[in-house]
Amino acid sequence: MAIADWPESERPRERLLAQGPGALSDAELVAVLLRTGVRGKSAVDLARELIERCQGIGGLLERVATEDLKGLGAAKRAQFAAALELARRSLTEQMKKRSALTSPGAVRDYLRLFIGRREHEVFVCIWLDAQHRVTAFEEPFRGTLTQTSVYPREVVKRALHHNAAALIFAGSFVKTMIPLRWLGLGSNFGFIVYGALFPSLPMLALHSLLVPVNLYRLIEMIRLSRRVNAAAGAQDTSGLWLRPYMKRRRLKRGAVLFRKGDPAVHLYMLVSGRIELVEIGNELPAGRIFGEIAFFAPDRRRTLTARCVEDSEVLAINESTVRQLYYQNPEFGFELIGLVAGRLTADIRRLEAALEVRPQGDAEAAVKVPINSA
Questions:
Q1: Which pLDDT tens digit goes with each residue over 103-155?
Q2: Distance between CA 287 and CA 270 in Å, rounded?
Q3: Is residue 121 in a domain?
Q4: Full-model pTM
Q5: Are 168 and 184 members of one domain?
Q6: Are residues 23 and 55 in the same domain?
Q7: Which domain covers residue 28, as residue numbers?
Q8: Please, which of 53, 148, 159, 311 could form a disulfide with 121 given CB 3.0 to 4.6 Å?
């Protein structure tokens, strides 16, 4: 049913005028901007679909001005782009009137609005007065998908032009942890030199302490990259490269590590002992990673029960640790996906081979072929 056929008290535009924008849902606010829907869908229905497709209102506002979205013509996209630009300019005016950029969080929120999820690399400058109020925001250099060039002379010229008392540099070019650590070390050494030439004991002490921290984390990430690359080159699916990030657990005979249907929050490696996958009667060999399939399954539920046949020792890694390692080094995530895919492929091949050699109709026996996933 078209919105024009709704009771007047339920129409988004009339409710906005009568009760204010806070009374409307995200979909209803978007519907006010859309004004009309498409065939078979009201403006509210179309708004809900767009928000769901873009994974939230933030995603919709980021994509609507740069992408062709089904249901949005050029006129509607122009309306959204104009509304978003008005919001940006309003925020800029507010920033100029008050001392807003006094914390890292305030700078982050400000940059999120202006940079967002750019498809290319950018280098931006925020010029501030003596009270840290924004006097100007500029994007002097725009790069490609993978790089951008910055000319210090141009930055200095713009700083003199704006008569700025302070300046914030920001860029969207550091996307992985290893380059970020190198950048951190470079900035540490720069501040150490500055603190020595223009005596500032707190600055000198702080960055002298940060150098070994950044150096240690950089070495950790480089070592992880090498282990991951070595494992990928050797097609190692044993997961030995995971060991430094796993925690040790000792289990008594008869102990159940997890049951069928339990939530999967860890994956495991059997160090010693014997563990049986109860439903299929298969015993896992030492050195085998298990539980990884359910760890990444949509419902995140165990498909089998794991029970210790004798005293055993396992290593475990949880989801939080895996996420941290993935974001710090994407190569880790790719190798982990390769491990899961390799295990699934091996299981499928074993089942296919078993079905070929079993008598026709002996499906139950074929299903009992050892599977190393849970």
A1: 777 787 777 767 765 556 777 888 888 777 888 888 876 655 445 556 667 77
A2: 5
A3: yes
A4: 0.38
A5: no
A6: yes
A7: 3-82
A8: 148
